[in-house]
Every structure is written in structure tokens, then in C-alpha cells.
């Protein structure tokens, strides 16, 4: 996650790249392994500057290589940390591609590229413990502008994708962008204010940044049916409100 250090090489790139390579190489020693699923990110399929861009389009299996200059001057604050995180995802995915090309493993490798993962958490115990994308979504509600892009995927859909991948015959090296279609922040605001009038939603249009995604490969090969934006909004907010109410008893 962004924010777990400031050194782009030591804190972001090395753990992502070396961790990915370690698993892929270790799997070579076990002939009984038939398939490896690498969970990457949609950020691996977009330029490192995507989080700064107003319009971003993400598609899988294009073969496009996104250059990363690790010596660049990253912005201060969370945006810079998020860009370092993006750089690590791009380079780790490139390491996976290189491994497949050079080593030609006996097992099938596929990669998952979820967008911003939201939904009810099985590990969160208190309202204070909210983390990951759920925390950024909650912070978005409390801010004038969103902290995440307008492309989301339910955590349960990501889990379902894993199950489908295990039972489906898939070509080696296939990339799966995991996401429901892009949502409208204007609609999100209206839905929250109508569904949760007591919740102080501070989001205010205009919302200039917009992402689009093409999930045709996941739709057709894995047959996934994406949960709605309403499901994700409700699962995050309802859990947070329930945990908050529990703490006040």
C-alpha cells in the first residue's frame, strides 16, 4: 500500500519485484504446481502518471510497456507515494512477463489486475481499523474531492475470480483486468445522500478525473458478473456505521 515508506527502490520496487520473482522461481521446483495466479493491480497497466491524469483508459493484454524513471522527482505527499506504488506494480508485472519469456515454466501463469477494491472486510474489527481502499473511500466521503479513481471492484468479485481461474483453461500469460464499469461520482454523491442522509458527505462536483476500463477478457473467459456500485457503497458504509455503533455501546 502507498505510504509504507518513502524510498522508491527500497520500500516499493524491490519488495514488489523480488517478491514476485521469488514466488515464480520457487514454483519451478514443484512439478505438481499447474497454475500460478499473480495478483497485481490495474496500475500495472497504465502509465506511472495515471493518478495525476484527468482521463485514463485501462485495457489488458495489449503488450504495452510503460517506462518507469525511478530517479524522477516524485510529488510530495500521498500522490507521490501512490506514484511510487504504481511504479512498483509496473516493474513487478514487467518482471513477470520477462520470467515467462525467458524461463517458459511448466505451469500456467495468469495475472489479475483489480482496480480499487472495496467491500466488507473480514478482518476489520473496529471502525478505527478501516484500511486499504475502504479507508480511502471513507476519506473521500469526508472530503470535497475523491481520494480514489471512479473504477472499483468488490473484494468478493476478486475472490470469485480466483475460484473461476482455477477451474478454467486459460492461455499462459493472460492478463485479467478486474473491475465493474466506471462509476459516476455525481451518482455516488446522490446515492449516499439519499441512502444515508445523516452521513455528512462532503463530496462536491465537479469531478474532473475519470477512468474507463475494458474488462472484456474477464467477462468472457471467467464469466464474471460484477457487483454494483451500490453494493460496494453499502457494504463499506454499513460495516463502518455498525462498528462505530458497537464501539459507542
From TrEMBL:
Family matches, as Gene3D superfamilies: NAD(P)-binding Rossmann-like Domain
InterPro entries: NAD(P)-bd_dom_sf, NAD(P)_dehydrat-like
GO MF entry, a single one: oxidoreductase activity, acting on the CH-OH group of donors, NAD or NADP as acceptor
Oxidoreductase among keywords: yes
Keywords: Oxidoreductase
Keyword Oxidoreductase on entry: yes
Domain of life: Eukaryota
Family of the protein in this entry: Belongs to the NAD(P)-dependent epimerase/dehydratase family. Dihydroflavonol-4-reductase subfamily.
The name this protein goes by in its record: Uncharacterized protein
